[in-house]
Amino acid sequence: MNASSVPPEIVDLARSGDMLAQEWLGDHLRNQGQHDQAGFWYEKAASQGSASAQYNLGWMHYHGRGVAQDYARCMYWWKQAAEQNMIRAIASIGILFENGYVVQRNPTEAARWYRAAADQGDAQANWFLGRLYQRGLGVARDRELALHFYRRAAEQSHRSAQFTLGISLLAGHARERWPQGVEWLRHAAQAGHQAAQYLLGVALVRGRRAPRDVREALHWLGQAAEAGDARAQYQLGNLYAQGNGVLADLGRAKHWWKAAASQRHVPSREALRRLRHQLEGEGIDFEHSDFAPTVVGQPAGRRRRRI
Predict the structure, then answer these.
(1) pLDDT given at position 2
(2) Which of 106, 121, 216, 220 has the highest Cβ tally under 10 A?
(3) Whole-angstrom Cα distance, residue 73 to residue 51?
(4) Is the model's pTM score more than 0.85?
């Protein structure tokens, strides 16, 4: 333990058996990345009945951080916390049943635990429960109920639920729901959800289920591309190569296609191959050409011909 970062009186209290001090030490050490010692103090507090320590110790066993990965111990501690009505623990037990950890996979039992937490307002549980209803796992398939639970989570700023709700509304045939779908995708995108940024950008470019807005599309595709999304990088390359709503810019197109190709994105590699073939057919050095934004169909800039 880094003694300089912990008030000595708290250490003394924890060693004397004070549950709150032990829990505090566990939190502090986990935040410092000292998982081994965090697990030690969490177990001390958990054994005295701290629901928070029980949940956190279960989480450490689930991920194998600081303690052995052990789903049985994870289930044990989460059930201890759930008996004290810790909502996060109740929802987390559903994960164990849904994925078949400790016991045989049982989506029906997972739904029961998710529902118990969802009805108490847990956003994550509402999202999980919505997924089960959408797929008909452990419950009768019901798209409207799935949307209901997604919305409950989304309204609590759960960005994955916002994303799922958005694409679900856009995927439906009810046109009157499409604007809501776009707005929920936008909420998720604003919260940094990379897939939402990409799909919102694509929807805004296509202009089918969302109003066409290339400027906003460039913003969201740019956000996802900068974060490393190969699909967004490819789409940006296409926009700049084709001059689709923007000034054609082969330099930017080449840049983004190369970024995606470096991630083994096959369409981007093919786009680069076609661009190379086109330019070299005109006697232009593909590797060393500098391109400036140009009128569509008339790529300009400094071209270096091969000698």
Answers:
(1) 58
(2) 220
(3) 15
(4) yes
